[in-house]
Amino acid sequence: MLELHKVHKHFGGLQAVDNVSFTVATGCIKGVIGPNGAGKSTLFNLIACNTPLSSGSIRLNGREIQGLKAYQTAALGIARTFQNIKLFSGMKVLECVMVGAHTRGRAGFLAGMLPLPKHRREEAAIRDKSMACLEFLNIADLAHSPTDALAFGQQRAVELARALAADPQLLLLDEPAAGLNIYETAELGRLITTIREQNITVLLVEHDMSLVMDICDEIVVLSSGRKLAEDSPTNIQRNPEVIAAYLGEDHEPAR
Ligand SMILES: Nc1ncnc2c1ncn2[C@@H]1O[C@H](COP(=O)(O)OP(=O)(O)O)[C@@H](O)[C@H]1O
Ligand SMILES: [Mg+2]
Predict the structure, then answer these.
(1) Was domain 1-77+168-255 assigned CATH 3.40.50.300?
(2) Crossing angle of helices 117-136 and 152-165, rounded to 10°
(3) Closest residue (by CA) to atom 18 of ligand 1?
(4) Could you tell me if the CB of 11 is within 6 A of ligand 1?
(5) What is the DSSP code (8-state) at residue 149?
(6) Mean pLDDT in the chain?
């Protein structure tokens, strides 16, 4: 479904993503892991066309998406959540999720300003779909709460609902378990697995290794912008280079 070929992104002299190639097969959950600063979020920004490539190519179902705008990749079926949650302030939860659904709604912007019957039907369908996403994530009771009043875990769930409401074929999740407790993380793992069962392909950036190892079919490891390894979870856990990259960051050397 997704093919990255020799993808580069530099910020001035810094190679944030350096010659990264990999593919994501339809229907899989692929993990992207690596120490802080490895280039994971930048990679997501490139795939969602939130920022342009320096060089290389990214194809979705064979179509080059380089040069598209973020709203265009959203219309092609790429939805995402952000490492730093970005909800719309001053909105109710349901409205916020409906904005996500509108990214693939058919009536255009102008039609949205005219109270045409066709538009009203579409609006009702979008409301129902958005409500169904909230129910799927067990937060339907929050539909009429202001987004600003939500606890952290609830904000993450609303952001995921908004992404799902866009009917994505590819869902990019940037550290969805960050800040969640172990029960919420376990529930998130079950949800992501259920999302995949609905034919949505998932690319998951996550630091919680037990979650990643549990639910991913394949894992790409990035370090300093470069692809260090790409393998099954079992092989990744045994890979000496991967272990070294993580030991370098997270652990005091054994004395
Ligand atoms: N907009 C930006 N301008 C300059 N440098 C950036 C920008 N975004 C990210 N970087 C740098 O690129 C590198 C990779 O960052 P990032 O993709 O956020 O890593 P990760 O998500 O793996 O922690 C870091 O060194 C970061 O400081
Ligand atoms: Mg990041």
Answers:
(1) yes
(2) 130
(3) 41
(4) yes
(5) G
(6) 89
